[in-house]
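REVIEWER CHECKLIST
Item 1: Sequence provided? yes
Item 2: Single chain? yes
Item 3: Sequence as submitted:
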Amino acid sequence: MAQITYSRLSHLLRISADKGSVLQKGPEIKHAASCCLQFVRCQRSVDSKALQERQKQVMAKGLPKQKPITGVKQVIVVASGKGGVGKSTTAVNLALGLMANDPSKSVGVLDADVHGPSIPKLMNLKGNPELSDHNLMIPLTNYGIPCMSMGFLVEDVAPIVWRGLMVMSAIEKLLRQVDWGSLDYLVVDMPPGTGDVQLSITQNIPVAGAVIVSTPQDIALLDARRGAEMFKKVHVPVLGLVQNMSVFQCPNCNHQTHIFGSDGARQLADTLGVQFLGDIPLHLNIREMSDRGTPVVISSPDSPEAEAYKKVASVVVQRLEEVNT
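Item 4: Structure as written out by the authors:
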């Protein structure tokens, strides 16, 4: 059957429209015109779908192929939509909680926040990484956790004033030029937001799942939702949401106050259809121990605060098993 072009169909329709009296008297012509219109609509729909498919193929060709990190079984990214919600503290204590729950598991921490690295301070680590025989950086280790951060490669007070391409180059080196040995879990402390670093990591390495950290405050939840939606778009399983700074308990009278609101992250998890991983209280002990470089899971392992982190770590492992089955 000969193909009918849009211009030919338009010409036929114009001819039909000019013959108004014929259209009124000839049901066959009316039917023919209707069929032509339906054909045009169907053809446009098919062409639109074909165009979208071609665009997906072109985009896929431009994306890097995911390649696992040598020696690392599963990568867990800890992210937040905005800064200041305790993401890095959560990442460190999550890693320590994973190992505390099961000492047979080996866990590492990668600080992917190039502009604001926090892991050296939180893990009480200083110095430059040495190089292995294969010219790979050897992570610095404390509390049994090997760590790598841009903070090990620059001075403490030196500002990292880099453009996007330099940041991407640094991320590539942190991903590919580190000798992690053998790890069951690599916890990646992501920078806040949903930008180049997040996309680069999720496109370069297979990520087992993402943990989203937020306070119960509405303004933080807005950005947390964006973060969760971003991981869904790049096909990274969202393991769930952690509600940080959920409640403050007065050390004198034990009165509890929900400074940032209550159950906001739990409600957001229900809205997004993802798991709620647990509450972390707003506690002086967490802040003091973090500033000293002795995370609460290490310094106060039997405290309610440490138990909260270990509970979150337990649920994360359960979620990983669910995702992998």
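Item 5: Key structural point noted by reviewer: The radius of gyration is 27 Å.
Item 6: Recommendation: ____
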